[in-house]
Design goal:
heterotrimer; A alpha/beta (about 220); B alpha/beta (about 450); C alpha/beta (about 260); A: about 220 residues; alpha/beta; Rossmann fold; 12 strands; B: alpha/beta; Fumarate Reductase Iron-sulfur Protein, Chain B, domain 2; 3 domains; six-stranded parallel β-sheet; four-stranded mixed β-sheet; 22 helices; 10 strands; about 50% helix; globular
Chain lengths: ~220, ~450, ~260
Amino acid sequence: MSREHILHRVRTAIGRSAGQPPGVAPPVRIRVPTDDSALSVAARVTNMLARVEALAGKTYHAASPEDARAFVAAAVAGKTALASNAPFLADCGIANLPGVRTGIVDREELRECCSTVEIGITSADYALADTGTLVMLSSPQEARLISLLPPAHIAVVPSERILSGLDELFAILPNPAELTSSMVLITGPSRTADIEQILVRGVHGPGEITVVVVERG
Amino acid sequence: MSAVFDKKIHQTLADANLQLAIYTATGRLKDKRTESVAEALMPEYQELRTQANALKKHAIENLDYYLEEFERNVEAHGGKVIYCKDGTEVSDFVLGLAKERGVSLLVKSKSMTSEEVDLNERLEHHGLEAVETDLGEYILQLGHERPYHIVAPALHKTRFDVAAIFEKELHVAYETVPEKLSQIARGVLRQKFLDAGIGITGGNFLVADSGAVVLVENEGNARLTTTAPRIHIAIAGIEKVIPRAQDLAVFLKLLARSATGQALSVYTSFLSGPRRAGEIDGPDEFYVVLLDNGRTKLLPSRAKRQSLYCIRCAACLNTCPVYRKIGGHSFPWVYSGPIGAIITPQFMGVSYEPSLPFASSLCGACAEVCPVKIDIPQVLLDLRSDVKKAETREKKNRLEKLSFRMFAWMMTHPRVYAWAGWMARHGPILNVGPVRAWTSQRDLPPRPRQSFRDMWSRR
Amino acid sequence: MALARRRLTGQEACPTTDTIKTSVGKRVSLFVTCLGDQLFPNAGMAVVEVLERLGYAVDFPKDQTCCGQPAYNSGYREEARTVARHFLKTFESSEYIVVPSGSCTSMIGHHFADLFRKEPETLARVEALGRRVFEFATFLTEVANVEDVGARFDGIVTFHDGCHGLRELHIREAPRRLLAHVRGLELREMLPAEECCGFGGTFSVKFAELSGAMARTKLEAIVQTGASAVVSLDSSCLMQIQGALSRAGSKVRTMHLAEVLASR
């Protein structure tokens, strides 16, 4: 059996025996920043929005869930859109905007819809301020394809979910596998530079991304 | 060096357009990397490199433990781990599964490991359609070429090359605008993602404490490959294992910066097992193929096993003055650049291309940029010694061995050395051998009449 | 092994030695290198001149030949060991050894240890020796503690960082500080900086066409500066660069750092 063969070769090569406990691992290196810009929500929001814009994403800082709803309504006007089942989208009234479909739980129906719809609307579990990243865990509330197949993606995120960065994410979520089969970090619109190093957006994933940060007040 | 190697190098050097393409593209990536890890922007960069090296060292030195931990956790989340000795076992597994499930179309995201075992060729031989979805890889697949670079596979292709390939293979109108070319590829590949029965990826990291596969990309094709089809197979070398999810706080900060100068690549996926109960989409089946294919041959050497720390960022390629001149296709195996130069002889044996470890000026630029601090020049020096030991055993290259024996003898007999120096300065210069090689490119230095020791003794 | 005492931020930590405060009148031994001895004697004489001007007594152990790097780089470890042992014997009694070459200094200070890992006694001697070997520019700035050697050189020069000196010995600032004090001299940096000239020892003839291509890329950077001379710590790099300049019909000359510092 290749498994035993390979493990045996590995052990022989590194001088270990089956069942031997590992040596002491280097300590985890997680440095959650504690300066003002990292701690203050306002600073995180500013940072997040600036980073997303630097990546050619669009942003909107909504003063309230109603404000967010109005913004999204304008963004999807005249277009087809599918919203995920995220409770926050329902809270904002985005899920029941006219022209916005939602509530899909069947995989085939989801795939069908995502491959034709123009805009996918989701929330996000977290965001990372220092890189302008959305953190999305697959769940009954958030399907994976909605932020992936449609050519445009709008993410509506409450401001308190913005973390300082990757270190803070792994500090609060040391084992994402316990929660989900898929955690995706999304940093800007899909891109490639495979042809002559020329930047092209929207190769496979959405070429347009909009991040709406919402103050819940 | 072998005639093949020599010829490929010569052809690449003689192609002015190709020279410009390689130099410019790698230059851009090199500069972006440098900017992104500048002291002012990332003061912790050197510390992270040290930590990454320590983590890789620990993982490799306890590899069996972490492989088993990884396997347990993959299975705990509903996935399955398959250990494969070589490419044949990999393709046998994929073919077997495809047959069992009635799958004839597969989509692939970029995986150097799958290139290493010629997976596509084997699948196609058995009548399966395996479509590359990364734009660069897709272009190469259509053009029937191997990757030119670990991260930017079609680095050597101009838009005109791509236009010609698309026109010929996709029967579309000749189009040279990169954005439009990308849209053409997107259109074709979209349907492939949705129709494919199996998605195959590589694995940037295998996380032992989570049973997770981490995929780092910019296009979204890896996400689609692992979300749309019902079956996901990740193929990764055994050396890709890292101990903990939290260690990604170190590795992810280094990988994208080292590769392209981005703080993070557009998509980083952390995938563990098939979709869970309640999750609406995602694969129903999740397999991780753990590939040996010779990695266990690199493990025994304490000095050289650091070659397995590589996270495939290609920073070494982008900074290497040799790669930037001879390009990826001059190298004899799928892995090119400095990392290719050190792992190829270890995987394939030093006799595969004996001059490969010598195709370097040992400038050390690679070691300076390697995020996991592989001492590439030192490994090259060790491999050079291995090559000469093998040649001595096989009684090859005896003239060279003899001349270095004479060199050593001369250098321990100062009067002989002084005489040889006098001959070099006053004797006839024969334009053969090394002299001829030198003068083919540069002028000889002017010959001083007196040596330093002559001048010293006359003070 | 004297290396930059200051930890340059962003640089790898390198082994340091105590900064040795020397006084005028100390004796140093010169290892002029095989290439320096036979093909670039003026550089060696310039080193002597600068050191004597600073008050050092220079001796030249006559049995010296080579550090063995050509054999080591070519994969011939046994032959390299033979030469290294001779070096050890020749220089073991020297208190300071000054070397006008980054690559030879690196060979002695770093790679001799690789050669004798299986011979603990020799290894100890080699490591002790390594601590007393100094590249020329480093010796001036770190041991002699001088930056102004009273030199004058009118002209625009550019500086080529040899790869061993730069990346193994972490020498970047020392030669620049020395050049900054040369009256009449204007230093212009090459762009791109820090790229290999393509010499690499036997690489230059084993992969001649490739080596030549690398040299020509270096030439472009040199010409862009408008400098009339290229200065470096290593005669080997200068030999490569000069050969390429000459072949291209350029009037730009090459000079060892010592020759610039010896100029009045």
